[in-house]
Write a structure and sequence with these properties.
By secondary structure, the chain is of the alpha/beta class. It is built from eleven helices and 13 strands. Strand 6, helix 4 and strand 7 form a beta-alpha-beta unit. Helix 5 packs antiparallel against helix 6 and helix 9 runs parallel beside helix 10.
Amino acid sequence: MNKIKLITDSCCSLSKERLNEMDIDFVSMDITVNHKTQNSFEYDEKDPKVFYEMLEKAEQCSTSCINTFTFNEIFEKYVKQKFDVIYIGLSGGMSCTYQNALRAAEELNSVYGKHVWVADSLTGSFGIALMLEKAKQMIDSGENAENIFHALDKNNLKTFSIFAPGDLKFLKRSGRINKFVASIGSILKIVPVISADARGELKLFSKTIGRKKALNTIQNFVSQELNRDHADKVYIGHTGQEEEAQNLAKFVRENFPNKDVVVDFIDYTMGCNCGPKTIAIFGFLKN
């Protein structure tokens, strides 16, 4: 059986250092803020708090998908080294990156045989991180690439993500939500709670009046849907809402004492899409 190489992208919200520790390679999207484009992992401003304060005042921000050539290059490098490759990154419902990875895999598999698998996470940010950590455990336990792929693809691990953005204009201009949903927040002053649907596209989960009710909605969802049976990990991601994030972490720890709760900043790529003052939670659904 070939060795297995996991590859992800910069939307997984794990640092380069953490990915290196896990022996996971990655490709990175570019982000453009105020018309200055940089690799998201190499962005000049290293302090996420300062970055999101800056982003809140930015006149323009955008992200770019990863092209087929980049995927072909990194996949082929490992195939030539006798690896089976599993790629999992941002949901196909949120970016053309997934389709570009699929095309590169199809080209290489037609030449070298089946050695590259491209899984659709149907999620982003720390939802991908949860899947990568599970995949790493499966590799360490001796599972083959095809079985790991099937566990990851189409969110077969049953992760969830649910979040409250600070300002819907970021999701609107990135094309992640439609104009009607964006108008709900901007015109009616309603704070939306958003999740991913079965296709990995963002959907309106609930409309709430005020930030406090949005956070209560998230807590209620977690109480009802988070898997209580396993001592697994829960990620709470944010883009500058440290106090809210710590309060949500306290709620999870009190109600799910068997969980490993990690609070951290959402990566810059995802942050450019969801915007500053976003809070999100990621975990595994109950059976």
